[in-house]
Every structure is written in C-alpha cells, then in structure tokens.
Amino acid sequence: MASPVYVVGVGMTKFIKPRGQVDYPEMGFEAGVKALSDAGINYDEVDQGVACYAYGDSTCGQRVFYQFGMTGIPIYNVNNNCSTGSTGLFMARQFCSSGLSNVSLVIGFEKMFPGSLQTFFKDRTNPLDKTYKSMLSNRGIDPKAPGAAQLFGNAGREYMEKFGATREDFAEIARVNHEHSQRNPYSQFKDVYTLEQILNSPSIHEPLTKLQCCPTSDGAAAAVLVSQKYLDLHPELKDRAILIAGQSLTTDSPALYNSSAIELVGADMTRRAAKEALSQAGVAARDIKLVELHDCFSANEMVTIDALGLCEPGKAHEMVRKGDITYGGRCVINPSGGLISKGHPLGATGLAQCCELVWQLRGWAGERNVEGVEAALQQNLGLGGAAVVTVYKRADGGSSRKVQGVACKIAGRGYNPAVEARGLSKGEIEIAMSRKASSKYMLEGEKKESRL
Q: Which tens digits make up the pLDDT trace of 250-268?
C-alpha cells in the first residue's frame, strides 16, 4: 500500500502580465525559497526536484534549482501543456509514497509571450492536429478567433444546446471569479465587473467574451512534499502539513473524438480522474465545499463543474444561478480568482492551485478563507491531453478554520503569505539555501531580492 504524502511548504510569486520584466530563474528562485522556508526545510534535505514549464529550452529546471545548491540530486523537467504544474505534483507524490523520496521540491514557472497561445514549431506535427481536425468537421473553424477559445467556446455552445445554459450563466462564472480575485494579493487582475460589463466586453468566440478568458501570465509557484516517514521524524511540521488524500492523472480515451465539443476539451479525462481521486480520499463529490479548477475560459468551468460531479449531469448552470459557486452557496469555486483573473502561467498554474488550497486548509487565507472544509478539490487540465485531480485534507483530520498569527511566526517572516505578497527576505533565503553545495558562480549577478 502506498504511504501517505504531505504538502508541508508552499510559495508563489505574484502573477504578472508577460512583458519580459522578470526572467524565469528569478521567478523560480523566489517561489522555491518561499516554499522551502515555509516548510522550514533546507535544500540539502531535498532528494528529488521537479521543474514544470511549457515554454523554454531543455534543462531550464536545472538552471532554477542550481541556484539553491548543486547537490547532485535528480531533477526532472516536465511539460504536459496546461496541466504541467500538477503533473509535477503527481510525480513528486509518487516519489514520496513509493519510498524513492523523503523530500521532493516541485517548482512551476513560466515566462510567456503576450497574446493568445501560439505554436512555435512549424516544421513538425502539432500534437493537437487531430483535435482541430475534429473541430473542423463538427463545428468549423473561424480563422479570426484563437484556437483554444474556439475549442472551449464550442463546448459552451454544446452545453447551451443540450442543457439550456445561457450566455448570462457563463458570464456569471467570470463575474464571480473576478470578484474573488480582489482578495488575492497574487492575482494578476483585481478588477470587479458587473454581469453587463462582462457580457458587453469584446466577443472572442460565442458565448465567450474577453472578460471570460484567462490572460497569459508570467509567474512561478512551488510546493515541498514529504513522506510519512519524514513527517514522523519532524513532528514540528504536523501543524502545517496537508495530506494529499487522493490524486489521479488521466489521459484521453476514444471518447475524445465522439463528435462532442465537450468531450473534445477533456471532460472525460476529468470525469475519470475525479472518480479515482475522490475514491482514494473516501470523499463524495457532493460533500466538497472548496474547489480550485481549471477555468481557462468560463465555458470550461461550466463543463468541469459537471465532470467533477459537483452537480447532477447537465445541471452546472443551475448551480451557477443559485449562487452555489461562491461564498454563502453550497461550494466555493476558485476563491483565488481562478485562471480568469489570477492569471495562467502554464507551468505554475497547478502549483498555484495547490498553494491556495493549502493556505485555505491551514486557515491562513484571511478574508477569502472558506470555513469548515474537511476536503478540498483541485482540477488542472491540459489539452493534448492530461487531467490531474487532487483531494487535500488536513493532517489532523479536522476542518478548516481561520487562525491568526501562526503564519507570521514561520521562518521569522513576520507576515502571512496567504494574504500579503512580498519579495524574499534574507532570513527566508538563509533557511532555504544549501549549506554544503551552494555555488557562488551560480549566484553571480543574480537578483536575490524579488522585484515582482
């Protein structure tokens, strides 16, 4: 039987517009230092490293990790489209549960280009070629609209046709996510909009308008995972440890090409991953009160609510109309603001979701904290494809409740990182940096104090 695995440290940068202001080594360094210092673990104890990014040359991971120390550990570079970060989290959990690792560090980072996602390699087969061929056959292709927006917009259209959802339902999803983001200090956008403003923003691909689409972003996030053995040897970590109670990574089935626009964006992957992860955790979807899911477009949040089993099949829009996706409703979805408003640096997204749920279950999230949560659910999707669903619980088996002052005492940082985004302190850097294999050469000319 696999041994339990815990998240004991998390950290992230602010997500910002991709303007080339900060390079990936600096972003990755900040997130990694914050996660290590949050855990109170020195890099010398890390025995496996996982770097997550979609845009970058080979071994970008080593370039980031070598800044902490050149200890000779295995470092893996992961690219699984938009699910890259949670794929790295899945790998690290396997390492720790199997006995291969006691302490794994996962860092996701991305330095992106402005505008919609583009294909960079024109001289070889696009891995989504069959997906676009299927879309062309069933819904056609608009040469003026971004490809991803068409895929997810078409899924929204199908949900409208089959189940009676309206344009207003999709816009309400975006309105809620934008409203949530004002309480997240790491969010790329914090503007709040009315339903009418969202509906009247520029049309991208019906039913999607601009304010229902996630932006491209620069940013990084990280997590430290430990084995049960390590946690037992370090009982001082138990009050901040969050159990990964269930987790599943799935890829596509033949249902991908069954002429359904909903299945073409990975709903079947999510459905299967959710069933497995919830089963591992011993939790029913109806009992989930807190979710971070992959709302790259409002339409994907709609079909994902359905695929996760948070509602009866075909009833996601009714959940939206009842207010059951925000505070005061049955379930709070994307208290961070989600991809739509928080931002979407591909390699960092899954780990930023992890950060939010860890802070929530610890009770650190301040104004946005969801009380009384026993199990939190995360879903991260990449077309092409992969879906990762993770269920988190408190290590003590209790439920989330707001706490004051605890976060400020860890690492001597004097502030709560869940509610305040700051750059690195010298104290955090000293906790994290290797004491036996640090390379001055790797740090020459590097900016240790974050300017994000």
A: 999 999 999 999 999 999 9
Cβ–Cβ < 8 Å for 220, 361? no
For helices 129-138 and 147-163, the axis angle rounded to 10 degrees is: 50
**Cβ–Cβ < 8 Å for 152, 265:** yes
Token reading at 303: 């079909």
The angle that helices 298-307 and 267-281 make with each other, rounded to 10 degrees, is 50
What one-letter code names the amino acid at 63?
R
- Exposed / middle / buried, residue 40 (Cβ in 10 Å: 0-12, 13-18, 19+): middle
Joined together, the tokens standing for residue 282 give 């011993």
Query: Considering only CA atoms, which of 196, 207, 172, 164 is closest in space to residue 323?
Result: 172
Q: What's the rounded mean pLDDT across residues 9-37? A: 95
Nearest-angstrom CA–CA distance, 340 and 191: 11
Cis peptide before 385 (omega within 30 of 0): yes
User: 8, 231 in Cβ contact below 8 A?
Assistant: yes
What digits encode the pLDDT tens for the residues 69-78?
999 999 999 9
What is the dihedral angle through the alpha carbons of 271, 186, 19, 33, rounded to the nearest 10 degrees?
Answer: -100
Task: Report the largest interatomic distance among the alpha carbons of the chain, rounded to a whole angstrom.
Answer: 62
Q: What are phi and psi for residue 227, nearest 5 degrees?
A: -80, 165
> Computed over its alpha carbons, how large is the radius of gyration of the chain?
20
Residues 344/295, Cβ–Cβ less than 8 Å: no
**pTM attached to this predicted model:** 0.96
Chain centre distance of CA 233: 29
Structure tokens given for 417 = 């990182």
Q: β-strands 103-110, 203-205: how paired?
A: unpaired
Rounded Cα–Cα distance for residues 345 and 20 (Å): 13
270 contacts: CB under 8 Å, gap ≥ 6: 250, 304, 307, 308, 379, 381, 387, 389
Look at residues 338, 350, 362 and name the one whose alpha carbon lies nearest to residue 419.
Answer: 362
Are 145 and 204 within 8 A, CB to CB?
yes
Q: Which amino acid is at 405?
A: G
Please give the C-alpha separations between residue 380 and each of 44, 75, 168, 181, 269, in angstroms, as whole numbers: 30, 22, 25, 18, 11
In angstroms, the CA 437 to CA 285 distance is: 46
Q: Are 341 and 179 in contact (CB under 8 A)?
A: no
What six digits make up the tokens of 146?
């971004």
